Amino acid sequence: MDLVELEHQAAVCNLCELYVNRNKPVFAKGSTSSKLIICGMCPGPEENKTGIPFVGDAGKILDEILLAAFNDVDNANVYITNLVKCFVPPGTSLDKSWMNRCLPYFIVQIKLIKPRAIIALGKDVSNFLLNNTSSMKGMRGKIFNYIGGIKLLSTYHPSYLARGGGVKHNQFQTVVNDFKMIYRYM
Asked: Which H/E stretch holds residue 144?
């Protein structure tokens, strides 16, 4: 199986009820030869329209983070995805079964990309991937071992920064520094 076939399978997936609100499946963007995967939790309304992850307000903040950390505004050196591939309407409580249904897609993405590091954006995806219930403050900026010795770093989600002023948010530079920290593993 390759990434094209995996994306096709995700596009027609109906293993949970989320497919009902899916306009376009949101699989990934960026370099398939990247040593870094950036993973959010689920696509928002803009992503559901375009089929591309991180194109809304959070995506603009993520672009600013990548520019500040890696001088990479075109996402040329990273692979960006979400754990859940279908749109979750804003305000909807996350159901662990949705994450469990989509986890195999993410695991195969990891096996095919073969990254050295993963950045988990936000508490929900970090806790799910690490199988814990820690606070964001307790996880942020720490390096964890993940599948096959891949390093996983947890940091604030760009949507959190967007709600608090974007690049002017008092945690923006913290997130940039987290991204810079993971660079030594790539």
From this structure: strand 143-145
* CA–CA distance, 152 with 171 (Å, rounded to integer): 19
Task: With residue 153 as reference, give the H or E element that holds it.
Answer: strand 151-155
Name the superfamily (CATH) of residues 3-10+28-148+158-185.
Uracil-DNA glycosylase-like domain (3.40.470.10)
- Digits of tens for pLDDT over the chain (186 positions)? 999 999 999 999 999 999 999 998 899 999 999 999 999 999 999 999 999 999 999 999 999 999 999 987 676 689 999 999 999 998 888 899 999 999 999 999 999 999 999 999 999 999 999 999 999 999 999 999 999 999 999 999 999 999 999 999 999 999 999 999 998 887
Looking only at the bridges linking them, the beta strands covering 36-40 and 117-121 are: parallel
Any idea where the domains of the chain sit in the sequence? Answer: 3-10+28-148+158-185
CB-facing half-sphere around the CA of 26: CA atoms within 13 A = 31
Helix (H) or strand (E) holding 182: helix 172-182
3-state helix, strand, coil in the chain (%, to 5): 50, 15, 40
- Tokens 């672009």 belong to 63
**6-33 residue pLDDT tens:** 999 999 999 999 999 999 889 999 999 9
Measured at the CA of 152, the angle between CA 122 and CA 119, to 5 degrees, comes to 45
Helix (H, G, I), strand (E, B) or coil at 178: helix
